[in-house]
Structure formats: structure tokens, C-alpha cells
């Protein structure tokens, strides 16, 4: 990256930024990948977000907290007509993603490596067709619940940037967080839960890729829920 990054405030919805020390090859891929894929919030957002991408796209999606990027890379490769913005502040996940993108570049993908609220506040109103929040940190201790990403303030942000009819998708294996999300979306009023029976929230989304985290949760008898809310 060229120049110095401007420090931005964070609302601390995520935990640590670093895990194990990354290998030199990962560090090289990370630096090169961020130079190529990172969106620059110091520049005004284009009125037409499709201009963020060097290829023609017709829809725009945002994934918050993509981890190692398994799902995001699969979704972007399977749907080249959609532009994807992925957000992940954890350096080790970013490095894994960038190593994979070095092997298989994706022109319909952009990345941000800090607080997702910064991107949400930067985006133009009614600019996204979808927002995905898959397996976010549940912050299980009551004193930390204020750090859960699903909150009235962030649902306000979602409502602002989603187009009418746009979808907010939420997946988790933590029952309390699933119920928390249902209650918060119902109380907010801008989101309608799309479920007619239990299979609608037990069945994974189309083209879903099971990550190692989800496989581990299922082995430990934690049942995932897949919620879909439509922006009214």
C-alpha cells in the first residue's frame, strides 16, 4: 500500500486483530492483495458502486466478517455478475484469503480490513442488494452483549444502505444469538423475516459452502440457523 492509512475510530464489534505469526509468503500475498483489492474510504464513495469494480456487475453484496474467505470466494466465483465487498479485520483470515486470491484472482471482489461500520457509513443510501453476516462473534457473556454486531444502531445502518427488497442474511450456531437477532429485527421494523416453516431456517442457503467452523459446530451438536430478512 502507498502512503499512510488514516486512523479511524472503531466501535469494537470484533476481538483480537492478530493470531499466530503469518509466514513470509502470506505476508507478501497480504500486502499485494490489499494493494489490489482494498477499498479506500478516504475517497468519497462513488454514487454508482459498480464503479468500484473493473468488470461489469449488476448487483452488489456485502459480507461482514468473512473469516478465511471460503464462502465469499465461492460466492464471488459462482456469481460474476455480482460485485462483492468483504470485510474482515482479523489479519490471519485476511492473509489466508489473499493467498487464495493470488492463485485465483476475482475481479468482482473488493476487501476492507477494519471495522464494518466504517464501510456501512461510507456507502451511499440504498446501494446494496444484500448483506451477509455469517457466524459473527456471539460475545456470550452478558457484559459483552453490547458488542454484538446485530444492534439497533447497526440495523439502522443496514436499513439505510440496503435497497428495498434487499436481503440481510444471518447464520449462527448459537441459539441465544439467533433469538437475539430475530427479536432485534422484529423490533426494528425495517426487516421482515422470510420463514414459513422450520425448514426455512434449518436449510442452508443456495450455493452454501460449509466452512471448517460450521463442520466443527455440527460435530459438537450445535445446530446452525440460517435466517433471511427482507428490507421492507
Structural account:
The chain is an alpha/beta fold and 232 residues long. It has a single domain (24-231), classed as Rossmann fold, CATH 3.40.50.150. The chain has helices at residues 24-37, 70-78, 91-103, 116-122, 152-161, 175-188, 199-202, 212-219, and strands spanning 59-64, 82-87, 109-112, 128-134, 162-172, 191-193, 225-231. A 7-stranded mixed beta sheet has the order 3-2-1-4-5-7-6, with helices on both faces. The longest helix has 14 residues, at 24-37. The protein starts with 23 loop residues before the first helix and ends with a strand.
Task: Give a summary of the structure in a few sentences.
This protein has helices at about 25-35, 70-80, 90-105, 115-120, 150-160, 175-190, 200, 210-220, and strands at about 60-65, 80-85, 110, 130-135, 160-170, 190-195, 225-230. Helix 3 links the parallel strand 2 and strand 3. About 35% of the residues lie in helices and about 20% in strands.
| Fraction in helix | 25-40%
CATH superfamily: Vaccinia Virus protein VP39
Percent of residues in β-strands: 15-25%
What is the count of β-strands? 7
Q: Rg, please?
A: 17 Å
Give the N-terminus to C-terminus distance in angstroms: 40 Å
Amino acid at each position: 500500500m502507498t502512503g499512510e492509512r488514516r486512523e479511524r475510530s472503531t466501535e469494537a464489534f470484533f476481538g483480537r486483530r492478530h493470531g499466530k505469526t503469518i509466514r513470509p509468503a502470506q505476508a507478501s500475498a497480504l500486502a499485494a492483495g490489499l494493494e489490489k483489492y482494498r477499498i479506500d474510504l478516504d475517497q468519497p464513495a462513488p454514487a454508482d458502486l459498480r464503479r468500484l469494480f473493473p468488470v461489469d456487475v449488476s448487483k452488489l453484496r456485502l459480507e461482514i466478517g468473512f473469516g478465511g474467505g471460503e464462502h465469499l470466494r465461492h460466492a464471488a466465483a459462482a456469481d460474476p455478475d455480482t460485485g462483492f465487498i468483504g470485510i474482515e479485520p482479523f489479519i490471519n483470515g485476511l492473509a489466508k484469503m489473499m493467498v487464495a486470491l493470488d492463485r485465483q484472482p476475482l475481479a468482482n471482489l473488493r476487501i476492507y480490513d477494519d471495522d464494518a461500520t466504517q464501510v456501512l457509513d461510507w456507502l451511499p443510501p440504498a446501494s446494496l442488494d444484500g448483506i451477509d453476516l455469517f457466524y459473527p462473534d456471539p460475545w456470550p457473556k452478558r457484559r459483552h452483549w453490547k458488542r454484538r454486531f446485530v444492534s439497533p444502531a447497526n440495523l439502522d445502518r443496514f436499513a439505510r444502505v440496503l435497497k428495498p427488497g434487499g436481503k440481510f442474511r444471518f447464520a449462527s450456531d448459537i441459539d441465544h444469538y439467533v433469538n437475539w437477532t430475530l427479536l432485534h429485527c422484529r423490533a426494528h421494523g425495517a426487516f421482515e423475516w422470510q420463514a414459513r416453516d422450520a425448514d426455512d431456517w434449518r436449510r442452508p442457503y443456495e450455493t452454501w459452502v460449509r466452512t471448517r467452523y460450521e463442520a466443527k459446530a455440527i460435530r459438537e451438536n450445535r445446530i446452525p440457523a440460517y435466517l433471511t430478512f427482507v428490507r421492507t
